[in-house]
Task: structure prediction
Amino acid sequence: MSLALPGMPRLHPRLRRRELGLLLIVALALPVGSASLAATRALGTATSPPIGGIPLADGVALAWYLGGLFAAHFLLVLSGRRTDQVLLPTVGLLGGISLLLMERLPQGLAGGLGLGRTQLVWLLVSIGFIAGIGALVRSDAWLRLYKYSWAALGVGLLLVTFAFGHDVNGQRLTLTVGPLTGQPSELLKVILVVFLAGYLSENRPLLIEESTRLGPIRIPPLPYLAPMIAMWALALSIVVVQRDLGAALLFFAVFLLLLYVVTARASFVVLGLLALFAGGALLYELVPHVRVRVDIWLDPFATASGSGYQVVQALHAFARGGILGTGLGAGLPTIGGAPPIPALHTDFPFAALGEELGLIGIMGILGLYLVVIERGLRIAASAVDDFRAILAAGLSLVIGVQAFIIAAGNLKLIPLTGITLPFISYGGSSLLTNGVVVGLLIALSDRGAEAPRIPSELRGFRRLRDRGAA
Amino acid sequence: MTPDRPGRRPGIGVALGRVAVALTVAFGGLAAGAGYWQVVRSGELSSAPDDAAVIAAGRHVVRGEITDRDGERLAWSLTDANGEPYRKYLSNSLSGVLGYASRAFGSAGLERAYDAQLTGITSADPVQDLVKKFRAEPSDPQAIQTTLVAQLQEAAVRALGADRGAVVMLDPQTGDVLVIASTPVFDASAVADPETSAQAFGSLQGDPDKPLLPRATQGRYVPGSVFKIVTAIAALGSGAVSADTTFPEQPAGEKNGLVVSGYRVRDGHHGSTGSVALDFAGATEASCNIWYALAGLRTGGDALASWAGKLGFGEPIPFDLRTAASQVTGGGGSFGGGFTDAVELANAAYGQAETVVTPLQMALVTSTVANQGILMRPHLVRSFTGRAGTQDVDPEVWQRVLTSGQAREIAAAMQRAVEGPLGRQFTTGAQVNGLTVAGKSGTAELGGTGEPNSWFIGFAPAKNPEIVIAIVVEQGGRGSERAAPIGGDLLAAWKAWAGR
Result:
């Protein structure tokens, strides 16, 4: 089957039955949730009075969102590539749950369009990135060949944030350029994975074959330890300068996991964890806000009305949810017009969903993230070469580990860090970046992909360099 | 580019598989963590008085009624001009136990402890809670029938009069609490009424007599001689002392003071016993500090502290209301059981030193003696009634402390302390016509020149005890002067109520 339109390259659409089927399930589930939410809000609950009338506007937002999902599906069909068909519906459901949650929270939490509408716009942009990258990006050379340029860009972005970023909630994460405001650390995680994929795939044989003995344990050959130490230092500096524990933990964990993927040496992971705990202990002693976070984690109830308030309120929210949940719209009693948990829409949507959807809903959402991880790692395992394998693994780990860190923080399994829950938390930077990540994963899953074409002038350069090295 | 697959190390595919397994396990951990908070801790946290849903529901749900054990209404709801509900209480005498529920100032007492049940956020039936989201009206306010007796509560507050103090009365066989009174009382209805609440609550907060402090459960007092019953339980229970034990050095110690580690322990009242070395019952009847100091030293700090622990000392008592912890010592000492040295132990054994107790704790000590050594868990609620029907709260054994023989020996000594020729001078006011009363008075020296706290603990009828009482009157003078007569009055009132 082929289609030809004047002025366009020949198209070879390929039906994606599995994706369509899964999207239809999503398109059934979300309106049910939306209707239940509208009914609950119209009738009122024990803790919130009825709003009087059915909020039709929510249905319109959902219609736009589902339209976006099907448009993305259509674009992927048109591209005719044999790529993954599970990722789009999976993150589509996560995003839909996010939309229902943001529609139901007090809209004043975001300025301008209001919380729900703003989130809808960013979700559509994110889906646009998924479909655009998934349909159009075929060569990975632009990622593979410029790893040090990407690294330089990442470090530059970090330095710019250090220097010009402004503090929000005590964290220096936010950068404003003209009318745009964003959190560069979100983008940084993708850049980091691209760099690591390039570096680790190139040095893989050396990392595997050689090692230095340090007493009973084997450590990587010393020259290759340098990037590990650099990563560790990078993580520490992010904590100290940006006060962003979450990003630091995410970067370091993804780095360690990728190092393990490349070398299959558990000793590297152990060594890395020891460095992590040593660094953590050092920071606990030296950096006040780290100590506060850890103390809150150890016993939030000791300061339930002070510094532990947010965490304790989140645990209460989980407890109120119980097994079946209160139902969408029936939880989160407001105190003075605001939900009980500060920064609910960015840092604690997992607790909010825990209350309204219950343990069952939590299991479902965790399951969706596991699907994303498993699909990503599957794409990695069937990749044609090391670079693509490590890149795909890194991209799926970025989503999986980030979801783990914030969910575990919400549940008081680890200290709380202020990172977002992928595809659910409110926020443009996060949605956009995760859209890029999933788009790249879909592009990398192309089983009909050709080997990367190295431009001829670079080929000459590489030959020169190889000769020099030999 | 061909992928390197060195034979020695597993390839990328294997490592990816292991990473996938590790992440699956990690996410399983998340699910387990969610299960912990959403199932294991769910009931406790979601019905806590500081839960946001409980607070929010308190603002616009019509709370369940609270009644006494005879069905008399103690607390009910009215509606203000805006159609919003507020609380009304039968009597000021209940303020120390029911507390208040106010839209502006939160809640206290029983209203706070069962906020979740009274507003219907949780019911007594977990299955109902599980499916409540499917009902049109999810909240199910519960009515609470308490174990209280309104007329005895009223009598207790009247007996305390203008003094600050507390009375606890409970049934030793079931743990049912009949009276928890604390004075001064306050007008909880005025705190709850939106028209008057700001003014009423403001003046209560500034009151130097602290009417908002529920003294029966959270007031911590030096016990004086009533603590001797704790020493007796530890001494007889551990076997360090028997009912026949006498101390030859005791008569001389009464005259000249007992030298413990170079420090002289003195007794305030001696002479009437002459130079007789008293046995356990005699020492209890005469309230002999020297005998008890020696018995405490022989029992040892570790045993005294651990037997007190069985009676509930050391930690807040698990009860419907929040309680303060009682202590035998400030702790931290190395002499055993946290005591600093022999002097502190000797003084603690007759209720001075660092020993502080709540009136509820002393009622439990007495209850243990009265119920043949078995301490029932104290409770304030008989039943919860909601749409799903009535859930009764059953009596529960909390601790088995003494054998019935040991308990009988202490009970007999306490009976002599009320009826014996020597005891009568302390506790004569506690006698009631037609009722055999056992008890112990206490005069707790506070140091300085102020009047001591006046204590009485007791039970009746002595043979088959049905009621236990503990009374403290702040700066009420000697136990015999103030607390013991209140004990007599209230036991008479109980006799009239119970038809004994």
In short: The radius of gyration of chain B is 27 Å. Residues 1-7 of chain B have pLDDT under 50 and may be disordered. The longest strand of chain B covers residues 453-460. The CA atoms of residues 374 and 400 of chain B lie 5 Å apart.
